[in-house]
Structures are given as structure tokens and as C-alpha cells.
Amino acid sequence: MPFVKKTPRPDRSRKKKEPVWISPVRRIERVAAAGRVCAIAFMDGPCMLPAMPDRFRGKPLTLVLAETLERYGAKGTFAVVGDTSGNYPDRPGRAGSPAWNGAAWDHFPDFGQDKLGGVVHCPELVSRLLAGGHEIASHGYAHIPFGWSPPLYGPRRYQPDLEGVMTDLRRLHKVMEDGWRYPMRLSSPPRGVDNIKGGFSSYDAYALMGYQYLAAGFDGAGRAPMASREAEVGAVWQPMERLLLEDPDAFRGQIIFQKDGFNMARRSPIAGGLDKQLQLLTDHGYQVVTVSELLEQAPFRDVPADSGHGRAARRLLGLGWCPAFQDNALRPEAALTRGELAMMAFGWETVRRRVELVRSGRAPFRDMGPRDPYAAAAALAVETGAMAAPGGRFRPGAPVSPVELAQFCSTRLGRTPPLGGWESISHGEFFLLIVELLGG
Ligand SMILES: [Zn+2]
């Protein structure tokens, strides 16, 4: 059964746009914060090796970062790995290249030094981070990319399938649960690869884990090597200074990407540049909080939390609905389609079912293939009587009609909205209506 496109005809006059879907997992890159508040995500740690060059008398790099943050009352989000010592046999790749720390696998903090990095080998650093009020997020137990992608060349290894990804994620989750009773809520895929063999993506894996997708809107330049350490340290804070000069609100709601480890030239410019970054942010009135705290203040990308639509969508989020698209935008003006309605209401409940559908390869409806992101939610919506699919057609791209909405609300919520005379209802109007039906 071929994948059935929901858009009737491609518009060739415009640039092809990637479709975005309503999703339980939201990619958190930047949020619509009300004030000057932002977050910093530190990737690939923890790291017991000292900063390079070491100007901190041998202190572990992660501890240097934590102490620097704390001098400014700032909280970091550390996306950690578990242990990369199982990623052998391997050989070191070319220095200064993306394979600097291993030709086939990643090794943190460095090739042959796996025992000085990761949560498993650095429990005291994890305890220290938590004691400082910082957040721990998952970056995969062994930092193995979820699937193949073009930048993964030659001998580079990746996870064979969704099962491999899940085993790895559950392993790190369990380490944090068992060791610290700490439930991780955010995750970032190793090397940013989303694709998982078999028709899946990181969004499926994170939905199964109950995670949100940690991303970043501003790259802190901690990875690419430059001519000198001085140039690298400058690259950490100078672009920030320029941006703040142009627009003091440039970092409002932003997540800044940093490296808790070495760049491809085996230097750690972040150890020198973080202080300057925090000084700039503090001088401009910013508060640096964890990503979870940032989300608490402003859950969505495009709509402020204190607006009518923002408040209603947050309420739905709290009730286990999926009001946002996978890019964390609400798009309150967009017309609500049938597929989106099913996904908003049944998204979290149908995470496993979607995996089964994709694996079975069987189309649930005549106009929806098994890989359609809304297929499982649509199937459950029809089974529960909340929606109908006459003639075996679900029509996922069709706007929701007043009669369909009434049927949906009376079945799903036990309450019936007044029948309007509209032709389509927007996402924003829908949020307000549902919240009103639920009693404010
Ligand atoms: Zn990484």
C-alpha cells in the first residue's frame, strides 16, 4: 500500500515545505518566553578530564562548568551519556575531523579514555550537578546514532533498528532511576540523527520513553576547531555579544548549545568562554534556567503562555492531550483537520499502536497508509466512536465539521458544544472550546 499524501496537489510555485505533524513529542528549540530568560544545554558529558588547556588546577571539566554557572546563579541542562567503553574495537579517526574521537563510534571524553566520562564512571559528578540544581537529560547510553544519515560516512556505526534505540535509551534511564531516583524528561539524539530504520524516527523513540526532544536554537561553537584556543574561546561569546548589541531580546526563550567535553582539536573553549557568556547574559538582565524550567514558564514556540490560546493549550497538555506540532508550535490560526483532531486527543494513547501498525505494513484506512503519522490515532478515534470513517476512508486532511466536532466532544468528553455554522474551526478556537467544555 503506497503512502497516501494528504495534500491534494503540490504547489510548484512555492518552495517545497517539510510537512509538520501534531505530535506528543515536541522538539524544544526555543520558546515564546515573556521575559529575558534562556537555557544552556551541555552535551556529551559528564567529563572527568580537566579542561584543555587546563587553567583550573586539574579540576574535572564538568565541575568547572557547574561552578562557573553557579557563580552567576545559573542552572544548566546536561545531556549526558552513560558509557562509551563498549564501543570497541575501534581506532582513532583523523585529529580535527568529526571522527577525532573514534573512526566507527564515539568515545567520550576521548578515544581510549571512556572510563573518565559518562554517568556510569562519574557518579560523583552527576551527584554534584544535581546538588547544584542543574538538570540531567538523556543523550543516549552509548552515544550511537539512531540510524543512518548522509553525514555518517564509511565505517560509522549506528543503531540497527528501533529496538536497538530503545534498549540504549532504557539503559541510561535505568541508571539515573536506580542511582539517583531521577526521572529524565528530555533527550537529544546522538549526532542529531532522527531517522531510525524501519520507518521510525527519534520522535517514536521519545514517545515510547515519554521524553520531550531537547534541541537548541543557538550553537555555542564548542565543537568545530579553529586556528587557536583564543579564536575558539572568542567564537563562544563574540557572536552572542554581537547579537545582544543588535537586539537585547535576542536570547529570550533561547536554548544555547554547548559541549561538556572537547572539540575536534581536543580543546575545551567552553571552559574559557562560558564565564564571558554568562557575564553578557547577566548584564542584559537574563536569567539562565534549566530547559524544564524554561518549558514550565513558556511551553510553546509561537504562543506566549499567558495568552488565551497559550493558557488553554497548556491546560490540554496537562490533561495528556497533544495540542502542539512536533516543532512545538501551536499554529492557532491553522484550520483543524480530522487527522490532527484524532492525534491531539489520542496521540499519547496510540504510541505503541503506531509502532505495531508501521511494522505490520497494513493500511488502517483506504486513504491512510500504515506509516501515516495519524494512522494509529485515527484508528482509535473510529473504534471508540469519537470519529467516523464511512466507506473505509478517514479523510485525515479534511477540515473538522461542526457535526463531527459535536460527535467527537459528546463521545470523548461527554459534553456537546453548541452547533456552529462555521466551515472550519482553527486550532486556537478548538483549544478555547474544549477548555470551556471541560469547565474553564
Ligand atoms: Zn553528542
Would you mind describing this structure in some detail?
The chain is of the alpha/beta class and about 450 residues long. It has 2 domains: about 15-295, TIM Barrel (Alpha-Beta Barrel), CATH 3.20.20.370; about 300-435, no CATH class. The protein is about 35% helix and about 10% strand. It is built from 14 helices and 11 strands. Strands 2, 3, 4, 9, 10 and 11 form a 6-stranded parallel β-sheet that branches. The chain has a 3-stranded parallel β-sheet with strand order 1-8-5. Strands 6-7 form a two-stranded antiparallel sheet. Helix 9 (about 310-320) crosses helix 14. The protein is globular. The model is unreliable at about 1-15 (pLDDT under 50). Bound molecules: zinc ion. Zinc ion binds near residues 139 and 190.
What is the fold's blueprint, element by element?
Layout: E1 27-28, E2 37-45, H1 61-71, E3 77-80, H2 118-121, H3 123-131, E4 135-138, H4 162-180, E5 186-187, E6 195-196, E7 200-201, H5 202-209, E8 212-214, E9 218-219, H6 229-246, E10 255-259, H7 269-283, E11 287-288, H8 291-297, H9 308-318, H10 338-346, H11 351-360, H12 375-383, H13 402-412, H14 427-437
Parallel strand pairs: 1-8, 2-3, 2-10, 2-11, 3-4, 5-8, 9-10
Antiparallel strand pairs: 6-7
The protein binds zinc ion.
Zinc ion binds at residues 43-44, 139, 143, 190.
